[in-house]
Write a structure and sequence with these properties.
The chain contains 5 helices and 5 strands. The protein is an alpha+beta fold. The protein has a single domain (about 25-125), classed as Nucleic acid-binding proteins (OB fold (Dihydrolipoamide Acetyltransferase, E2P), Beta Barrel). β4 and β5 (about 90-100) form a beta hairpin.
C-alpha cells in the first residue's frame, strides 16, 4: 500500500513538472491589429509582451485560422493572446477579442489613435 502511494505521488509530480515545463514558453500577449489583415495566417500588430511594445506579426495555425474570431479580424481590434515566440513573430495558441480599455497602458494610446483614424478615414466611405 505504501509503495503504491509513493508511486502515485511520484507520477503526480512528474506530470505536474511536465505541465509546468511545457507552459514556460507560453507568453501572454496583448495586441492591436495595426494594418488591415490581407493574409490571415500572418497578421501585423502592435504587441505588448511584459510591458515591451513592438511591431510584429501573429502567426496563426490551422486551428486558429478556423476560429470565428480570427475570420472576423479587422484593423484596430484589441486582442489577448497566449502564444510562443517564433523567429518572425508570435505563434498564436489561443486568442480572445477584448475591449481596448483592458489593454495595458502601453497600448491604450495606440488603440485609441487607431480607432479615431479608422472612424475618420473608413467610416465616411460606408455612406
Amino acid at each position: 500500500m505504501r509503495a503504491f502511494l509513493c508511486a502515485a505521488l511520484g507520477a503526480a509530480l512528474l506530470v505536474g513538472s511536465a505541465n509546468a515545463a511545457s507552459g514556460e514558453d507560453d507568453l501572454l500577449i496583448f495586441a492591436v491589429v495595426s494594418a488591415p489583415p490581407k493574409d490571415r495566417s500572418r497578421v501585423a500588430v502592435k504587441a505588448s509582451v511584459n510591458d515591451t511594445v513592438s511591431d510584429t506579426k501573429l502567426l496563426a495555425s490551422e486551428s486558429i485560422l478556423n476560429n470565428l474570431i480570427w475570420k472576423k479580424l479587422e484593423i484596430c481590434h484589441a486582442l489577448r493572446i497566449e502564444g510562443t515566440k517564433a523567429a518572425d513573430g508570435y505563434k498564436v495558441v489561443t486568442v480572445r477579442v477584448i475591449d481596448a480599455s483592458m489593454l495595458p497602458m502601453t497600448l491604450q494610446s495606440f488603440a485609441g489613435d487607431c480607432l479615431i483614424k479608422k472612424a475618420i478615414e473608413i467610416a465616411p466611405l460606408v455612406d
